[in-house]
């Protein structure tokens, strides 16, 4: 007789592709952070035409790509999301939206370091 393959499931009973709610919240926070960075960078480029606004704008575009990786639960995305939020804090200090950006970056870092998010990315 032939054997019928059965999909393996882990002990929690969840499907391997199922995302925890914490991952979805982290992705939403990263997307909001990226959109705020795009807006702040574009506004800074339009008004002051400085290099930090250009760096922030490019970093925000990169954050959108990282958010896609987090959504797909790819291993590399968590590390880059943490790095990009740490780099965003000093850039937000030089922005018009400094308070909102810093609070959002710290909140995103906190959510990225929740054990459910870290374990699902490993």
Biggest sheet descriptor: none
Radius of gyration: 18 Å
Low-pLDDT residue spans = none
Beta-strand portion reads under 5%
Number of DSSP E strands: 0
Please explain how this structure is put together:
This protein is mainly alpha-helical. 73% of the residues lie in helices and 0% in strands. It is built from five helices and no strands. The chain has helices at 21-47, 51-71, 75-93, 98-112, 115-121. Helix 1 (21-47) packs antiparallel against helix 2, helix 1 (21-47) packs antiparallel against helix 4 and helix 2 (51-71) runs antiparallel to helix 3 (75-93). The radius of gyration is 18 Å and the shape is elongated.
Set down the secondary structure blueprint:
Blueprint: H1 21-47, H2 51-71, H3 75-93, H4 98-112, H5 115-121
Question: Could you list some keywords that capture this structure?
Answer:
122 residues, mainly alpha, single chain, elongated
